[in-house]
Specification:
Blueprint: H1 2-28, H2 32-50, H3 68-92, H4 101-109, H5 116-147, H6 149-163, H7 165-168, H8 174-198, H9 202-223
């Protein structure tokens, strides 16, 4: 029974965190600094409070640096992810007009050309950490210990993709939107795999930073910075 309660606690906390961020992104539209503070509470503090006290993973294992081979794999995979995301943008923009996205960013979260570089730095480092801690440490590694590999993979990767739906609402055509969400789910599963091997979140965090850097590069182009 204690084990069942642990599973339910992880699932409900993950769903509450995703739902709260969906409401924040889709309906409240606070300034980006406020949104970031809300996300820190939901994705870092909430799991620390709600994490089952018996069994599961330990915090000290989360930040162990990968060995030389693991570091090489993460950096190589990160570079590949960067190239794939940026390459996909270069290809898709031949058929789809992305010019409306800067206006949506400014209207929804107050991100514009003047503050984009600072926001990009936060997204690359801090935002990626919050998401890896929440979806990998909590919704995958913690859940895997109690529920098994396959349910943890499915729940973590699909909740990771679903969380991004609200922030991308209205950005793309239906076809591009479906492609983006599918890519996020697959990416989430890859992040899970990297962390399953190491037992921590450093590998997926590094790859996630590369992915965010690619998205930030696209943003710089759309903002007219590059």
């Amino acid at each position: 029974m204690k084990k069942d309660k642990g599973i339910l606690s992880i699932i409900m906390t993950t769903l509450v965190g995703c739902l709260a961020m969906t409401v924040t992104d889709a309906y409240i539209h606070p300034p980006y600094a406020v949104k970031s503070a809300v996300k820190a509470v939901l994705f870092l503090i909430l799991p620390l409070v709600a994490s089952p006290r018996e069994g599961g993973i330990t915090q000290k294992n989360l930040f162990i640096l990968p060995d030389r081979k693991g570091l090489l794999v993460s950096v190589s995979l990160g570079g590949t992810v960067y190239a794939l995301i940026f390459g996909a943008f270069l290809f898709i923009r031949r058929f789809y007009d992305f010019s409306g996205i800067p206006a949506l960013l400014e209207a929804n979260v107050g991100v514009n050309k003047e503050n984009f570089l600072l926001v990009s730095l936060y997204i690359a480092v801090c935002n990626s950490f919050l998401e890896e801690y929440f979806f990998r440490r909590f919704a995958f590694l913690e859940l895997r210990e109690r529920w098994g590999r396959l349910p943890a993979y499915l729940f973590s990767s699909f909740s990771f993709a679903a969380y991004h739906i609200a922030m991308m609402r209205g950005w793309f055509s239906p076809a591009v939107f479906i492609l983006a969400v599918t890519g996020l789910a697959i990416g989430g599963a890859v992040f899970d795999f990297l962390d399953e091997k190491s037992g921590g979140i450093m590998n997926s965090w590094m790859v996630h930073m590369f992915a965010n850097l690619a998205i930030n590069t696209v943003g710089c182009i759309l903002m007219g910075i590059l």
